């Protein structure tokens, strides 16, 4: 079997016939063998319609589940059951145009592991969403791209429409939760070559959206889990959390020294040094644990490199802040935030590439 199109359905009785027609019209001319696999959790008469469809057309199959529910497990179960070498996942409600699939397949044949139709590359549009959904969806995409490095270059990581080679995702264990199966696949199967092609997200004509607030909470939990299992992302967040703890150490010692009547400058310098040391100790036992040198001399070198990087980071971030504030007259709070961000990125990248290089 060449292609399996997996379609999760929950009460989509009004849409399944149309999507089947449009899919077969789009796929037949390619000359490839294909199946349409509906993964159904419906509580209405959708299963009966699917049953009829599967009798009418040999390329339609469906699995109706009564023991469990949920989009993520429906799609993952479908991916396991599908027979095609190429797996396409899409919604039943015609918001994803089936006519795009031949182009997606061509792209996979060019050598990409995954192809994502994107609403956010030139030529695409997310016209089907209202302003509120647009905002929620933008926020969700931004959080995903900040949290997970693998997603940083993908403009539409929350898409429910994608094609992937079966060989690229086989042999991994997936823990589906929430809606974003594609993110789960990219991170856990470590998918690196992704192509995006533009498409116009359509508005839903029949039936209603099943998206809810609790799904959005599950989405954040899902991203958190993926950050924890992904070495490169975990390192960055561990570094940021330790940096935050450093600020607290710094302020606490500063306050104590002031209470002890220490001069302000001395209190500031000393508390800064202590927080740098505590940051170093935490980072070398947590963030870059596996890269700490064994010999004492090596550790001392790494420690001094760390201090050097932090001091240079302070110079760079305050230099940048001054440039923004004094020359470009940027708002002082915004200058401060951008200065801090620059410092954090500098410290992380240089410590990762140099201080703790092996
Ligand atoms: N089997 C199964 N079980 N299918 C489900 C379930 C479920 O519990 N919940 C929803 N579905 C099916 C719907 O029937 C539909 O085919 C598809 O999943 C998407 O559901 P919609 O309710 O149409 O989602 P949406 O339009 O709000 O969200 C779309 O946009 C997102 C991008 O922002 C979907 O395309 C998402 O996949 C996409 O991520
Ligand atoms: Mn929809």
UniProtKB/TrEMBL annotation:
Membrane topology: Multi-pass membrane protein
Protein name: Glycosyltransferase
Source organism, top-level taxon: Bacteria
Major localisation: membrane
Coiled coil: none
Top-level taxonomy: Bacteria, Bacillati, Bacillota, Bacilli, Bacillales
Protein's cellular compartments: Membrane
UniProt keyword terms in alphabetical order: Glycosyltransferase, Membrane, Transferase, Transmembrane, Transmembrane helix
Record-annotated GtrA/DPMS transmembrane domain positions: 239-356
Enzyme Commission number(s) from the entry: 2.4.-.-
């Amino acid at each position: 079997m060449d292609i399996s199109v997996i379609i999760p359905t929950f009460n989509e009785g009004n849409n399944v016939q149309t999507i089947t027609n449009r899919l077969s019209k789009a796929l037949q001319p390619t000359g490839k063998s294909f199946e349409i696999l509906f993964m159904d959790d419906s509580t209405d008469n959708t299963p009966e319609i699917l049953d009829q469809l599967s009798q009418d057309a040999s390329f339609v199959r469906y699995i109706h589940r009564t023991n469990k529910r949920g989009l993520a497990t429906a799609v993952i179960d479908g991916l396991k059951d599908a027979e095609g070498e190429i797996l396409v996942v899409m919604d039943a409600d015609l918001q994803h145009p089936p006519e795009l699939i031949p182009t997606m397949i061509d792209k996979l044949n060019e050598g990409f592991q995954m192809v994502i139709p994107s609403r956010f590359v030139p030529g695409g549009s997310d016209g089907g969403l209202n302003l509120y959904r647009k905002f929620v969806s933008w926020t969700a995409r931004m959080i995903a791209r900040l949290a997970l490095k693998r997603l940083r270059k993908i403009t539409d990581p929350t898409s429910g429409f994608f094609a992937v080679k079966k060989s690229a995702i086989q042999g991994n264990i997936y823990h589906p939760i929430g809606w974003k199966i594609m993110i789960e696949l990219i991170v856990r199967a470590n998918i690196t070559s992704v192509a995006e092609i533009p498409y116009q997200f359509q508005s839903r004509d029949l039936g209603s959206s099943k998206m809810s607030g609790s799904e959005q909470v599950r989405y954040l939990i899902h991203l958190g889990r993926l950050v924890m299992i992904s070495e490169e992302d975990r390192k960055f967040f561990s570094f940021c959390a330790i940096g935050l703890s450093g600020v607290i150490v710094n302020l606490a010692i500063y306050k104590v020294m002031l209470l002890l009547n220490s001069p302000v400058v001395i209190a500031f310098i000393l508390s800064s040094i202590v927080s740098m040391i505590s940051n170093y100790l935490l980072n070398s036992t947590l963030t870059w644990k596996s890269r700490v040198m064994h010999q004492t001399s090596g550790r001392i070198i790494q420690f001094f490199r760390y201090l050097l990087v932090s001091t240079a980071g302070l110079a760079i971030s305050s230099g940048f802040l001054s440039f923004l504030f004094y020359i470009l007259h940027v708002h002082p709070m915004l200058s401060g935030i951008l200065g801090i961000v620059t410092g954090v990125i500098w410290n992380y990248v240089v410590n990762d590439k140099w201080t703790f290089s092996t």
